[in-house]
Amino acid sequence: MRKNFKTLYTRDQIAEQVCRLGGEIDRDYQNREILLVCVLKGSFLFFADLVRAISCPLLVDFVRMASYGCETVSSGIVEMRKDLEFSVTDREVLIVEDIIDTGYTLQSLFHRLLERQPRSLKVCTLLDKRIDRKVPIEADYVGMTLEEGFVVGYGLDYQERYRELPELYIFEDPSSAGEGRPL
């Protein structure tokens, strides 16, 4: 493994949490159809595994939000780069996010979708990182918590790299990695 990476959660730990979350979602929705909204790009691997862990009927859709650019800290300015194809009006909607950090991205998306009048709107996140939270937003379903650090792997990236890593890693001092050039 690269010297700047420290294992945070293994494949088995991730799989166990995804299975637990799927069970909790099944219990809460009790066979009602859910529209699962994947927040691209970081959530795609978690999303795929979670979809397979849920037995309730579901639809899938995707949004793409951006607030980081090429940095490791959110700019606080959130833009929607891809909107949903399905209407959320009068549907059970579950936003699936990779990590809640500052909360800016999730809060922006949550309010945008809430204005479209879903029957219910909840949030599922793989990682909840509370130390940097800037806005009051919470997830209804949380896989794992993270005290601090910048995470890569299992879909999460640094400057579009490292998404393919099968586990979650703390990326220690990404600025010194020598790979920080823009794509």
TrEMBL record:
Task: Name the Gene Ontology biological process terms.
Answer: GMP salvage; guanine salvage; hypoxanthine metabolic process; IMP salvage; purine ribonucleoside salvage
Q: Which CDD domains match?
A: PRTases_typeI
- Which Gene3D superfamilies does this one have? 3.40.50.2020
Record carries keyword Metal-binding: yes
Reactions accelerated catalytically: IMP + diphosphate = hypoxanthine + 5-phospho-alpha-D-ribose 1-diphosphate; GMP + diphosphate = guanine + 5-phospho-alpha-D-ribose 1-diphosphate
Major site of localization recorded for this protein: cytoplasm
Q: Which keywords accompany this UniProt record?
A: Cytoplasm, Glycosyltransferase, Magnesium, Metal-binding, Nucleotide-binding, Purine salvage, Transferase
Could you tell me which pathway this protein works in?
Answer: Purine metabolism; IMP biosynthesis via salvage pathway; IMP from hypoxanthine: step 1/1
What cofactor requirement does the entry state? Mg(2+)
Identification of the protein by name: Hypoxanthine phosphoribosyltransferase
Q: Where is the organism placed in the taxonomic lineage, from the top? A: Bacteria, Pseudomonadati, Thermodesulfobacteriota, Desulfuromonadia, Desulfuromonadales
